[in-house]
Amino acid sequence: MITQRLAPSRLPPGERVYAIGDVHGCATRLAALHAKIAADLAQRPIDHPTILHLGDYVDRGPDSAATIAAIAGSEAVASGVRRLNLMGNHEQMMLEALETTDTATIERWLDNGGEASLESWGIPPSAQPAEWSALVPARDLAFLRRLPLTHRAGGYLFVHAGLRPGRPIERQSIEDLLWIREPFLSFNGDFGAVVVHGHTPRDEPELRPNRIGIDTGAVYGGRLTCAVLEADRVGFLHA
Predict the structure, then answer these.
(1) Once rounded to an integer, what is the mean pLDDT over residues 135-144?
(2) Cα dihedral sign, 221-186-161-78
(3) Which of 10, 124, 221, 229 is the most exposed place for a label (fewest CB within 10 A)?
(4) How many Cβ atoms are within 10 Å of 149's Cβ, its own excluded?
(5) Which of 144, 128, 124 is CA-nearest to residue 58?
(6) Tell me, what DSSP letter sits at residue 62?
(7) Cα dist. 6→130, 135, 231 in Å?
């Protein structure tokens, strides 16, 4: 049973969003969390459920390829559930590295866990950067290239990293949406919506009046977290 508490915003009647934080190749944990979501839906059906992944599916962890397969595949977590998937900064870095000959761009990705992703797709260490894009399945690359940056539902805005304070949502830069930490994290004012985000790992979910942070460091030995939002309530599932 999910312990619910008062949320900082609300969703329309009949809607429930299961928002999942940074997976980073932890495919086994993701499968366990999807199973918990399916069990919750079986116990508490609702008309319009959505599973939303907040980005950073690849890099650092043991199986980026299986994570992408689970998120992008056609197999449903439960019947009638809409799935939405957002872009993270690690997907951005991966795509940039696979689409360039610039050494600094390639090294930036490798320094941030890209080698684990290459290994998960079975790409040998002897392969040259110019070969990588041909060795990653085309369907996976197409999925990554289509990922949107944000999703709005009720009083919530879902995004990977956060927003820059004082700038309207529609004028936020891609860099901030995917990478920002400060001044976003310490800002106490109104963003125009309650922001549900990952990107910055914490030991526990952060529930604040203007944001909900749900990266709990699964790839660093923490848990993979799902925020369960419905009406004016929020609860959490973990794996």
Answers:
(1) 97
(2) positive
(3) 221
(4) 17
(5) 144
(6) S
(7) 51, 47, 9
| Contact between 25 and 58 (Cβ < 8 Å) | yes
Number of domains in the chain: 1
CA angle 140, 145, 150 (to 5 degrees): 120
11 and 156 in contact (C-beta within 8 Å)? Answer: yes
Residue 125 burial (C-beta neighbours within 10 Å; 0-12, 13-18, 19+): exposed
49 lies in which domain range?
5-238
User: What pLDDT does 137 receive?
Assistant: 96
Q: What is the pLDDT of residues 171-187, one digit of tens each?
A: 999 999 999 999 999 99
Structure confidence at residue 85 as a pLDDT band (50, 70, 90): very high
CATH number at residue 12: 3.60.21.10
> What is the C-alpha to C-alpha distance for residues 29 and 238, in angstroms, rounded to an integer?
9
Q: What is the pLDDT of residue 79?
A: 80
Answer whether residue 35 shows pLDDT above 90. Answer: yes
The predicted pLDDT at position 74 comes to 63
CB 162 within 8 A of CB 185: yes
**Residue 156 β-bridge partners:** 153, 194
Comparison of pLDDT for 140 and 79, the residue scoring more = 140
Q: How far apart are CA 146 and CA 143, in angstroms?
A: 5
SS3 of residue 79 by DSSP: coil
* Secondary-structure percent of the chain, ordered helix, strand, coil, rounded to 5: 35, 20, 45
Burial class (CB in 10 A: 0-12, 13-18, 19+), 32: middle
Cα separation, 94 vs 113, in Å, equals 10
